[in-house]
Amino acid sequence: MVQKKQSQTKSKKSPKKDYAKSAKAKAIKTPSRKTKSKKLSPWLLLLLLIPVALTFFLINNYQNKKLSRVSNQVTIEQGTDVFPAEISVSEAYTMYSNGAFMLDVREPHEWRDGHIPGATLIPLEELVFAYQTLPDSEPIVVVCRSGNRSAQARDFLKTVGFTQVTSMAGGMNDWKAAGFDWVMGD
């Protein structure tokens, strides 16, 4: 009887079961493909972010160099006249009547819907490239639809050296409401 128990015990330990146990042990020690891909994803993300960050850095560096090349000629010629940051529509009309340069920073479709006669259209997004075409010896009144974009344009122009620049509060909405001259089309 004792011999039967030993033979039964031997039959329970078959080589197949030992192989299965060792395979399970290896599986625990060896990372699966899913685990490997999770470890690679931060590296892949980093590799994708490096070119984006480099591009952003280069664009900012280029723009800063471009702005640093602006001469102080505008500031010297205009002197130290201090213009208010923002003026009313009636004050803008007075300056317009006295020959101030009217700069409209709206989009072309807004311009066609109505603008100040004799004004110059340079959309806000293009101003960074076209500000050098503006007169540096006369006052500039910046106009938009309601006054927000004109304030941004005024701040930019002051940054690059223009001192005789102001923004019209209320924009073309208030200009038209006040009954001042305006024309449609190009």
Topology:
Blueprint: H1 2-12, H2 15-29, H3 33-68, H4 73-78, E1 86-87, H5 89-97, E2 101-104, H6 108-112, E3 120-121, H7 124-130, E4 140-143, H8 148-159, E5 165-168, H9 171-177
Parallel strand pairs: 1-5, 2-3, 2-4, 4-5
Helix percent band = 55-70%
CATH architecture of the largest domain: 3-Layer(aba) Sandwich
Strand percentage lies at 5-15%
CATH superfamily of the largest domain: Rhodanese-like domain
**How large is the count of helical segments?**
9
Number of strands: 5
Outline the biggest β-sheet. 5 strands, parallel
Report the CATH topology name of the largest domain.
Oxidized Rhodanese, domain 1
Contiguous runs where pLDDT drops below 50 for at least 5 residues: 68-80
Instruction: Tell me, briefly, the overall form.
Output: elongated
Radius of gyration: 36 Å
Question: How many discrete domains?
Answer: 2
Compute the average pLDDT: 77
CATH uppermost class of the largest domain: Alpha Beta
Q: Report the order of strands and helices.
A: HHHHEHEHEHEHEH
Give a written overview of the molecule:
With 186 residues, the protein is α/β, with parallel strands linked by helices. It folds into 2 domains: 2-68; 73-177, Rhodanese-like domain (Oxidized Rhodanese, domain 1). Helices cover 58% and strands 9% of the residues. It is built from 9 helices and 5 strands. The protein has helices at residues 2-12, 15-29, 33-68, 73-78, 89-97, 108-112, 124-130, 148-159, 171-177, and strands spanning 86-87, 101-104, 120-121, 140-143, 165-168. A 5-stranded parallel sheet has the order 1-5-4-2-3. The longest helix is centred in the first third of the chain and has 36 residues, at 33-68. The radius of gyration is 36 Å and the shape is elongated.
